[in-house]
């Protein structure tokens, strides 16, 4: 596919061909006659008129450009709820709307800042798994300038795995239970608030980094949601909302030194709502990999606690999180989820199994959800269900593919799952019929 080139011209070819420049000669004889002076004055007046017209055209062009920019901002401001998923991104994903593309990339860079601010160096025992930067300089230190947002809270996730006593004698990178996982940021720039059409609050999560987080990822069976996450029925029911055990553990576990991630998020969002309660607000939760799963759990929890707050998830390379009942709960409460998926990324196909639903009506979901899989015996389906391994895909999907990019050489697990790969694919995706812009090269050399 040849790249498309857009040029900006001041004159059309027709205009140029019809344009006949005039040659004007100025002279002043020793004894000018009246007729010559009159001709001279007329010529000067013509030139002044032409210069004024040119100036007016220049002014008009500048005004038009400013008006166009203002119109674009106004259009975005009016449609911000659409870009946040109010209509489930209908008509915006294929082809990918340019404003939505810019928003996805913007939130993806917030996730990148969560990675860059994490202390990965295990040799620094006192600082390992903490945030490297204070809140007031985090974005600048991570290379994000003029975001219009300020970080208000560092967030930590704690593993609920019970470790044997001897593990505490192991290196910090092995035994570290609580780790910096992301942050909360609030838009505080008047111009950005005006552009967005509301004051936006962002929660950004990084992906798996510590040893215990990897172990939590392996706890892939489904477990019931606790009462403090909106699940009033604590007994075991077939249609009760359930989520992956390890993800839930990282979200609601605490220890003697740190609150749970759930407590920190709820406290901070409550404080923000109290501070800006009279304004138009939105909450956008974004994350990559493990962070995508935590973003989904956070969205469900926050929407349960703060019903009126518009909540949107934009996730990159996320694994499956919950069962069909959990998905239905998210949909009923109005939480909007946009999953950015690379079809070559195996992490997005894990954990568990997804069976096609035969009947998706609300009545059937509330009564009894039936599953089938082509060619799969019913007794295997039953075993999978009883083992609590039946998951459901959540939200809307923007499906991309590494092989569509002319700049990605080879397909391997690490590259396909990398956040920069996702941002590169979003930047280049056009539509399912025209999958990639040949000019899109960003994010690959960072």
Automatic annotation (TrEMBL):
CDD domains: Lipase_3. The keyword Plastid applies. GO terms for cellular component: chloroplast. InterPro entries: AB_hydrolase_fold, Fungal_lipase-type. It is found in: Plastid, Chloroplast. Keywords: Chloroplast, Hydrolase, Lipid degradation, Lipid metabolism, Plastid, Transit peptide. It holds the Pfam family Lipase_3. One of its GO terms (molecular function) is phospholipase A1 activity. Gene3D superfamilies: alpha/beta hydrolase (3.40.50.1820). The keyword Hydrolase applies. One of its GO terms (biological process) is lipid catabolic process. Residues 202-353 form the Fungal lipase-type domain. Belongs to the AB hydrolase superfamily. Lipase family. This is Putative carboxylic ester hydrolase. It comes from Lupinus albus.
């Amino acid at each position: 596919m040849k790249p498309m080139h857009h040029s900006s011209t001041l004159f059309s070819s027709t205009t140029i061909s019809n344009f006949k420049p005039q040659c004007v000669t100025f002279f002043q004889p020793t004894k000018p006659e009246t007729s010559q002076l009159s001709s001279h004055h007329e010529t000067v007046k013509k030139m002044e008129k032409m210069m004024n017209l040119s100036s007016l055209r220049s002014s008009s062009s500048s005004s038009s450009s400013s008006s166009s920019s203002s119109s674009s901002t106004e259009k975005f401001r009016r449609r911000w709820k659409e870009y946040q998923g109010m209509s489930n991104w209908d008509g915006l994903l294929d082809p990918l709307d340019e404003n939505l593309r810019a928003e996805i990339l913007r939130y993806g860079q917030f996730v990148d800042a969560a990675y860059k601010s994490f202390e990965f160096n295990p040799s620094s025992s006192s600082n390992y798994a903490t945030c490297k930067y204070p809140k007031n300089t985090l974005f600048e230190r991570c290379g994000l300038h003029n975001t219009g947002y300020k970080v208000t809270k560092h967030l930590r996730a704690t593993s609920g795995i019970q470790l044997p006593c001897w593990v505490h004698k192991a290196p910090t990178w092995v035994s570290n239970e609580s780790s910096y996982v992301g942050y909360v940021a609030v838009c505080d720039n008047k111009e950005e608030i005006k552009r967005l059409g509301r004051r936006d609050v962002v929660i950004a999560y990084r992906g798996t980094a510590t040893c215990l987080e990897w172990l939590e990822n392996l706890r892939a069976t489904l477990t019931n949601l606790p009462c403090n996450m909106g699940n009033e029925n604590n007994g075991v029911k077939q249609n009760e909302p359930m989520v992956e055990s390890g993800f839930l553990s990282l979200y609601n576990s605490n220890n003697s030194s740190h609150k749970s991630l759930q407590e920190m998020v709820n406290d901070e969002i409550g404080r923000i709502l109290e501070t800006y309660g009279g304004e138009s607000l939105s909450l956008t939760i974004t994350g990559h990999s493990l962070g995508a799963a935590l973003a989904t759990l956070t969205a469900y929890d926050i929407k349960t606690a703060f019903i009126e707050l518009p909540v949107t998830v934009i996730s990159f390379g996320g694994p499956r999180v919950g069962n069909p009942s959990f998905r239905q709960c998210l949909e009923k409460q109005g939480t909007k989820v946009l999953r950015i998926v690379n079809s070559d990324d195996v992490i997005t196909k894990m954990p568990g199994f997804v069976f096609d639903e035969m009947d998706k009506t609300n009545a059937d979901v509330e009564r009894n959800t039936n599953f089938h899989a082509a060619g799969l015996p019913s007794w295997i389906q039953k075993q999978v269900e009883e083992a609590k391994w039946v998951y459901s895909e959540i939200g809307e999907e923007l499906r991309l593919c590494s092989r569509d990019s002319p700049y990605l050489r080879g397909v391997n697990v690490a590259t396909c799952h990398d956040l920069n790969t996702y941002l590169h694919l979003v930047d280049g995706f056009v539509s399912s019929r025209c999958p990639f812009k040949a000019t899109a090269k960003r994010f690959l050399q960072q």
